[in-house]
Amino acid sequence: MRTCFLKIYILLFFFLVSMSVLAQDERAQIPPILQKAYFEVNIGSIDYDFTQFQPEAGFSFQSLKVPHPAVRLVLFGYEFNKYLSAQLTYMRPVTWVKYKYKTDATGAIGQRTIWMNVGGLTLKPQLPITDRFSVYGEAGLGIITRSGFNDYVTGETVISNANYATFLFGGGLKYAINKSMALQLSTAYSPAQASEKQPSTSFVAAGFSYKLQKVSEKKIAEAAEVGYIHPKHMLQIGYSSNVLGYGVNNFVSSDKFPIFWGGEAEVYQGVSLTYQRNIFHTARVFSLDWGVSTSYWQSKGIGTGLSNPNKQDFFTLSVFPVARFTVLHTKPLDAYFYYSVAGPTYISKIMIDGENTGKHFTFQDNMGVGIYFGEKRNLNAEIMLGHYSNGNLFPNNDAVKVPLTLKVGYNLN
Question: Do the domain assignments include residue 179?
Fold first, then answer.
């Protein structure tokens, strides 16, 4: 039920954005549904006391290390008026809790990590005190996800997984710098759940909020005058292959250059069909699209050899946003970089090459570079990397790594 609710919420958001754009012919204007949207980044300290709950039978608690640095994001907020907003949030520590335990039967000491994050869908009442200063509260639904662990030697559960709904509360102080940007101090709290052996979670932070604003008529006129083409519709076919290995995937997901994600399950090859529609663009660089895609994949398999019988077939269906940055405009072509995150996806298999990806609901993430070319920029070519994971919405989240993919497309302006 919780997964279905999240899926419907996100798909409804994309539908509303699409309909609002269809109602306006000018893509240089932010869609009406986004003109009251905001996003937040809050960085602070998280705390939870797992010492109050003992591990499963056969094991004893020894010590606990809680790294406190954490981040809380408002992935999408909507301001109904100056007194009330609604928001979708995600909170997690930067690094995970380290839990040391003893196996009662042998006296052996083990240490593992507990992964945990908190999702939220909350209402946010706000009270303006002055033109710039306001206070707010927060209350609503919280989703706690905890990935526990088993003992290395016995394989028995030490800390169990958990995934349940609870209450989420919070509040804060906000200072508006201008119409778009505000600084804030905030707090969030979810209560303990004894039945899940889950302690209460508290979070305090400092951060900022950014609210989208309607584009001025002057900037819209500038976009029209510049005359750069931002294709309105794009249809692409793609082919993925691990013939060059996973070196690029591993590099961009490494500790030295962490700008993307890897995955435990690896794609051997695949084909995809993608449609994208532009809903907003600035005069030169930035554009925002939404898209849908269907893909057929074959996993790498367990073992080696081109005829590896352990390869598995699966498919995905996705709806996704795309942020595109066209950094080069020349007469023969325009070149861009793009990033797509958190596209709601159905994945047909959960266990892939022995890796547990969680549930059939997951998210698609893509990153790539491409070009538009031709006199009317009707032709397109792209190279991208892909990734599927549920963002730790569920206790199991062995992600899927998609190697280099070549896409070719045709655009309608």
Answer: yes
List Cβ neighbours of 110 (8 Å cut-off, separation of 6 or more): 100, 101, 102, 103, 151, 152, 153, 158
User: Which segments within 306-378 are labelled E, that is strand?
Assistant: 313-329, 333-347, 351-352, 355-356, 361-373
Question: Do 229 and 204 fall into the same domain?
Answer: no
Q: What is the CATH number of the domain that holds 125?
A: 2.40.160.20
3-state secondary structure of 52: helix
The mean of the pLDDT values for the chain is 87
Give residue-wise pLDDT tens across range 169-220. Answer: 999 999 999 988 999 999 999 999 999 999 999 999 999 999 888 877 877 7
DSSP state letters, 373-398:
ESTTS-EEEEEEEEEEE-TTSSS---
Q: Are residues 244 and 180 in the same domain?
A: no
Query: Range of 306's domain?
Result: 217-412
- Which amino acid belongs to residue 357? T
pLDDT tens by residue, 92-102 = 999 899 999 99
Report residue 147 CA to chain centroid gap: 18
User: 67-89 burial, b for 16+ CB within 10 Å, e for fewer?
Assistant: eeebbbbbbbbbbeeeeebebbb
> In whole angstroms, what is the distance from residue 387 CA to residue 312 CA?
17
The vertex-369 CA angle with 368 and 375, nearest 5°, equals 140
- Cβ-contact 20, 33 below 8 angstroms: yes
Q: State how far the Cα of 290 lies from the Cα of 260, in Å rounded to an integer.
A: 20
Single pTM value for the model: 0.76
Distance CA 30, CA 17 (A): 10
Q: Which of 388, 394, 390 is nearest to 267 (CA)?
A: 388
